Amino acid sequence: MRKRLLLSLLTVLCTLGGVKLHAETIELNFGPSTTSDLPTNFATKETNVDFNGYTLTMYQTKWQKSKENSHIAFAKLNGASLSLPSFPGKIITSIAITCQSTTKSKFDLFENGSTTALHQFTFSAMGDKGIQTFNIPEAKQAAGIAYKFVTANTGNQCGIGKITLTLEEAGDPSKTDVELDWGVKEVNVLAGEELKTPALTVTPAEAKDAVVYTSSNEAVAKFVEGNLTLTGFGTTEITAEIKDNETYNNASATYTLTYAKKNPELHFEREVRYGKLGVGVVWEAAKHIGDGNVTYSSSDPEIVAVNETTGQILPEDVKTVGTVTITATASATDTYSEATAKYRIIIEDANAPQIGRETFDFTTENPYGMTTYNTGDTYESEVSSVTSGNVVMSFYGDYRSYKYNSQSTQGDFLTFRKVYNGVTSSFTITVPTDGIIEKITINTVDKFTPSDGTTLATGDGEETGLKVWTPAEGKEFNTITFSNKTTSTIKLKSVTVVWKNKTSDLEIADLSFTQTVYNTTVGVETEVNAVNNPNNVATTYSIDCLNPDEYTLTEADGKLAITVDKVGVYTLRAKSDATDTYLPGIAILRLNVFPQVDFLMNGGPTTPVENFIDLPEGGGNIAFGELPVTVDLYYLDEVSEPAAPAALAELDKNDFNLYDGTPVEFANPGTLHYFMRYADAYDSPIYSLGVKVNGQSSGIENVAAEATDAPVEYFNLQGIRVENPANGLYIRRQGNTASKVIVK
Length: 744
Known about the structure:
- Residues about 1-20, about 645 and about 700-710 have low confidence and may be disordered.
- The chain folds into six domains: about 10-170, Sandwich (Jelly Rolls); about 180-260, Cadherins (Immunoglobulin-like, Sandwich); about 265-350, Immunoglobulin-like (Sandwich), CATH 2.60.40.60; about 355-500, Sandwich (Jelly Rolls); about 515-595, Sandwich (Immunoglobulin-like), CATH 2.60.40.10; about 600-744, no CATH class.
- Strand 27 (about 320-330) and strand 28 form a beta hairpin.
- The chain has one helix and 63 strands.
- The strands form 15 sheets. Strands 1, 2, 5, 6, 8, 11 and 13 form a seven-stranded antiparallel sheet that branches. It has a six-stranded antiparallel sheet with strand order 3-4-7-12-9-10, with no helix packed on it.
- The chain is an all-beta fold.
C-alpha cells in the first residue's frame, strides 16, 4: 500500500495531490574535481574505498583522471564491478548514470547477492547525452538494498562519470502506511464565489481521525473549528497531514488555494477611430462589466481632450491633427481587480497642412504581430511593414523582435543582422507623398547608416543618448532608409518620426455633412443626405471599421441609402482625392446602429401588429428579447394611448428604467416606451409600443391639430423618419397631429 514518488531534487517534499514522502538525492560525481582517495590502478580484488563519506567496493575498476573526462573506468574483464553502499532505513527508488567513456559502454545492474540483472544501461556516446535513468519497480524496492554495476562489454574499457540516487525514507514496517489524496493540485476561488473545498480521501479510512489540517498562509485562508475559511486575497498551501505516531507512518497531501478578485470586462469596440478637425470624432465609451469606477484619459490632451468621467469627446475637444491613445481605467474594488482598455484616435484635416508625430515602439513582446525570439537563427518572415497614423515603417533583409531570455531585464527590441549573403538589413520610413520628414529619433546605441549620406547625430536634452536624423539644409525627403553596414547585429527600441505637409497652393475641397449624427436599426435601410460638395469634386463613400459585405450604400438624387448589418457606432466617410486644383477632402458623420428588438408576451414570442401587442382578457406581461452585451435597454410604461413621434421628444429619459429582464405587467391598455443605449454612451430614439387588453385600447387615434399647414412627415413603426415611404403602414405627422396610415 505504500506509494512512493520519484524526484531528482535535493531534499524535497514531493506532493502530487496524494501521499507525500520525504525524498532526497545523492550524487556521486567522479569528475575532475574529485578529491577522494580513489585507486588510480585497477583493483585486482574487491577493495572498499571511502568516497565523500560513502563506502564503495571496486573490483577491476579505477579512477581515470583527465582534464574533462574523469570517470570510474571498468577493465576489459568479465566481472569488473562497482558496488554502491546500502542506506539503512531508506529505499532507493531510481538510479541515473552518466557515461564518460569514449567507446560504447554497457553495464548490468544487480542487487548485491543476486545473479539476475535488474536492468542494463547501454551507451553509444559519451558526455551529457549519455545520461540514463532507471526507475526501480516498486515491487523490487525495499529498505537497505545495495546495488552493483558490472561491465557487460568485455571488449572495451567502459566508464561511469556520475551516479545519481533518489532515496525515500522507509516507514516503520510495524506501523500502517496511510495514503492521503485531495484529488486536485489547485483550487481557484474568485471574489463573491463560494469556497468549495475538495474532499480528502484517506486510505485506510480509520486513519481519518489522525489527520491534521493546516494553511501555510492564514492571511488568505485558515481553519476555524475544522472549516476552511477565506480571510484575504492571495495564495496558500492547504495541507492534510498525519505525523508519525504509534499507529501510522508519516503521510501528507497538499493543494494550492488561490483566492483572487474577479477580472472585470472592460473593452472598446474598435481599436482605431478617425476624426476630422472642426467636426469631431465618433468617440468610444468602454463597455464595462464590474463594480469599479471608470475614468478616461488622453495620451495628449493638446491633440484630443476627453471627458474624464464619461469618455465623451466634443468637437471643441479635438484641437489639432495627430494621433492619441484614449485609456479607460476601471478602479479596483473589493470584488474586482483594476483593468484598462485603450483605443487610438487619428485626427485628420484634408483642408489644412498636416503635422504629424508618430512613434513605432518595439519594447513589447510580439510587437505589431511580429514574433519575439530569444534564441536561434530565425528571422521575421510575416511582417514586412507596420503603420502608425500616416507613416509607414518597412523592413528589408534579416530582422526580428528579440529578447535575450525570459528573465532578461533589458526588455524587447528590434534587431538587424549584419550583411549576410550579400544582403543588407535595413528599415525605411515613408510619409505621404505630399509630406516632408522633419526629424527621426531612433532609440538605439548602435550605428545605423542613413541613405542620404549623412551621419546620425547624438541627441541632447530630452533626446540625450538617442540617435537623431534631420535632413541637410535645402533637402526634402518623404522617405529615407537606415541600414546596418556594420560587422555585427545592431538593435533599436523605438523610432519617432516628425513630419509635415508641403506648403500647397491648392484650394480646399470643402466637403461637409449638414447632419452629422444618424440613428438607424440593423438591417433597416436609412436615408442620409449626401455630402455637401460645392466644388463638385469626385467623391467616394465608405464606413470605417466595417467590411464591404457588412453594409450596402447606394447614391441617387442627392441621397444615400444605407443598410448596416452589424450593431455598433460607425463613421461614414466621404472622401475626395487631390486634383490639379483641389486638396484632398474628407467629411464624416456618425451612424448609431441599434439592434432589432424582439418581444415576448406572457413568456412566449410575439410580433406586434400595427405597432400593437394585444394581451388577453385580464392583461399580462411583455418582455424584451435578448440584446447584444454592448446594448442596454431602458423602458417607461404608462396607461395611455400609444405616443406619436411628435410627443416622444417630450419624454425625459431620466424617468426610464433600466430593463433587467423582469417582464413589464399591464392590467389595462397602455403604452410601452423604450430606447436603447449602446456602450453606455449612444442613445437610440425613443420608440413606443401600444398595448391592448382583449382587443381594447383607449380609442384615441388622433391628436388635435395645431397647424394644418405644417409639413407632413412619415415615420416607420419604430419611430425612424422615412423620406419617401413605400407600401406599408406608417405614422403620419403634421404639426402636432399624428395618425396611422397605410401607404399604397
